[in-house]
Design a protein that fits this description.
362 residues; mainly alpha; two-stranded antiparallel sheet; 14 helices; 2 strands; 57% helix; 2% strand
């Protein structure tokens, strides 16, 4: 029927040419729609490792709300020993809002590599949680040292695994695992956490015996606790914190200065000292005053007498210079050589006078 209609319009093409251009796309679209009503069977997804039967999408996932959950398809029993290590689980978290456009996921990792990746993901997430939980006040080093050691341990295991290091660390341009580890290590080094402990590698748990602090850090922590205890005790007795706790606070300040420069100090100590200083100066309105009367009097006398010594010195210097100039002038007068007599020349028209001419004139 459609062919007869087309022939009829072609015969009178000059008059019906616009109509042909309108009906031809409609005719093609009708043919395409009829072809899709009875599609052919979709071949099953297979690869060199395993084969997956051609099942319906509903067999893989059961959508609940907006999260897709389900179980992977059954795997054929003719798998070899080399394919037994291949992870065949479908990753539902890759499919947001329950859409299964990537329902069949062919993994490229072996089971051992997948376990290493999952272990590192777990320990790194624990360390990040610990760091964020202790961000303020920042007590990252002493609180999260065990978690960081676990991160380092798992990353070294990935590097040592010959079959997994290339695929996990350098198989793509993004290098997610390596970049994440670089960020975590940079965070640890930026806080100078290495200087908090005698040896970070010994910190397998958070006990003092297995994770000893450095000697100066331990002394600083002790003095800081004593200072805070002094604040609490004096406030409880309605006493003056600035007077009663001044000596303890001065000892804490000296212990902090002995740790070195700010860039070299464990940041836990920096945070504790800043907190104690803020409580000392802001909460209790105290200042570090040194009651040294002798030095104050000596400095005052020196600055008051400085103008006197200055004017005396300038006066003595000016007298010496004047005496020296007068002596030099006197020496010039005594040692001045006698000047010879100058012969005066006669004016124009006059003769030179000699002894004979002068005697004759007389």
């Amino acid at each position: 029927m459609a062919i007869i209609i087309v022939r009829k319009f072609v015969r009178d093409s000059r008059r019906n040419m616009p109509t042909i251009f309108v009906l031809l796309p409609v005719f093609i679209s009708v043919l395409i729609c009829n072809a899709h009503k009875d599609p052919s069977a979709v071949p099953a997804v297979t690869d060199s490792y395993y084969s997956v039967p051609n099942q319906k999408e509903s067999d893989y996932f059961k959508v609940s709300g907006t999260i897709a959950t389900g179980t992977p398809p059954a795997i054929t029993t003719d798998m070899t020993e080399s394919t037994a290590d291949v992870v065949t689980a479908v990753l539902p978290f890759l499919l947001p809002f329950g859409r299964s456009s990537m329902a069949r996921f062919i993994p490229a990792l072996t089971r051992d590599c997948r376990e290493l990746l999952e272990d590192y993901a777990n320990v790194s997430s624990i360390f990040v949680h610990c760091a964020l939980f202790n961000a303020k006040p920042l007590l990252l080093c002493e609180t999260c040292v065990v978690e960081f050691n676990e991160v380092e341990k798992n990353f070294r295991e990935i590097e040592k695994a010959d079959t997994c290091s290339d695929s996990l660390l350098s198989s793509d341009r993004v290098q997610i695992l390596r970049e994440i580890h670089k960020f975590l290590k940079n965070l640890w080094q930026k806080a100078n956490c290495e200087s908090c402990f005698k040896d970070v590698k010994d910190c397998t748990n958070k006990t003092t015996e297995n994770c000893p602090l450095a000697e100066k850090v331990s002394k600083f922590r002790k003095y800081n606790n004593e200072t805070l205890n002094c604040f609490e005790a004096v406030v409880a007795q309605n006493g003056d914190v600035c007077t009663n706790c001044s000596a303890i606070y001065q000892r804490l300040s000296k212990a902090y200065q002995s740790l070195g420069e700010v860039e070299e100090i464990c940041f836990d100590c920096v945070e504790l000292m800043n907190s104690t200083r803020k409580e000392w100066s802001v909460a209790y309105n105290c200042t570090c005053t040194r009651k040294d009367v002798v030095s104050i009097v000596a400095i005052s006398i020196f600055f008051c007498s400085f103008p006197i010594f200055f004017y005396l010195g300038s006066k003595m210097h000016s007298v010496k210079v004047e005496h020296k100039l007068m002596k030099q002038n006197r020496l010039r007068k005594t040692h001045r050589p006698s000047q010879p007599k100058l012969i005066t020349l006669p004016e124009h028209g006059e003769a030179f006078l000699t002894e004979e001419s002068s005697s004759n004139t007389i």
